[in-house]
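User: Let's play a game. I give you a shape written as tokens, and you guess the letters that built it. Ready? Here's round one.
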């Protein structure tokens, strides 16, 4: 699969394309923490397909404030996003890194929030639309990579996204999931991995649900 070009400037794409199968260091292996994994386009920011222009970046209503509230309650926050525009040659990693920088700066300014990590699948889907790699959602690779990297307890973590692919990826990783949708999603497709634990219509609902759900409650989906 084509490798995206790296043109000019330092790449702020932190810690992503690494050999991440390495076991956790012994001193970290027993320290685990819960996290909220967040989809980017249409969930954290308004969906502008394949956009890398920082000027077009808009947070979805209430998103920055919600992340602030979650962070204040001890949740680690990570973005997990499919960016097939890289494999398709629509934009470079450097261009995407600029957008990411604007996004992270925007969160900092709006709600004093710092993301723990920002994980990207740069691959194109298979011809049938499914993932052709281990990391394109609905595959769980990005979440698992993050868990290894940051000692995250997936079973007590949440995946928040606007697509059933986000939900399925969360369930495949062993997380609980929230579908953030104001569009009235159609009935679930045929797999038991796709119904979320709950559907929230706005970010305030996401925060309420996460903060009010007991920590030990296991995912209801398999
Ligand atoms: Zn991938």
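Assistant: Ready! My guess for every position:
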């Amino acid at each position: 699969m084509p490798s995206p070009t790296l043109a000019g400037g330092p790449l702020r794409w932190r810690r992503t394309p690494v050999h991440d199968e390495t076991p956790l260091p012994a001193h970290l292996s027993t320290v685990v923490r819960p996290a909220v994994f967040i989809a980017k386009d249409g969930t954290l920011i308004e969906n502008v397909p394949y956009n890398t222009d920082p000027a077009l970046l808009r947070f979805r209503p209430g998103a920055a404030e919600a992340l602030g509230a979650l962070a204040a309650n001890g949740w680690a926050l990570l973005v997990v996003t499919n960016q097939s525009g890289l494999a398709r040659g629509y934009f470079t990693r450097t261009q995407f890194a600029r957008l990411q920088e604007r996004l992270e700066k925007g969160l900092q300014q709006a709600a004093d929030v710092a993301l723990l990590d920002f994980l990207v699948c740069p691959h194109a889907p298979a011809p049938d639309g499914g993932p052709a790699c281990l990391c394109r959602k609905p595959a769980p690779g990005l979440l698992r990579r993050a868990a290894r990297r940051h000692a995250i307890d997936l079973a007590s973590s949440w995946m928040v996204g606007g697509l059933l692919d986000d939900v399925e990826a969360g369930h495949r990783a062993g997380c609980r999931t929230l579908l953030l949708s104001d569009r009235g999603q159609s009935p679930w497709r045929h797999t038991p991995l796709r119904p979320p634990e709950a559907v929230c219509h706005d970010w305030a609902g996401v925060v309420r649900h996460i903060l009010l759900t007991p920590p030990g409650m296991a995912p209801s989906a398999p």
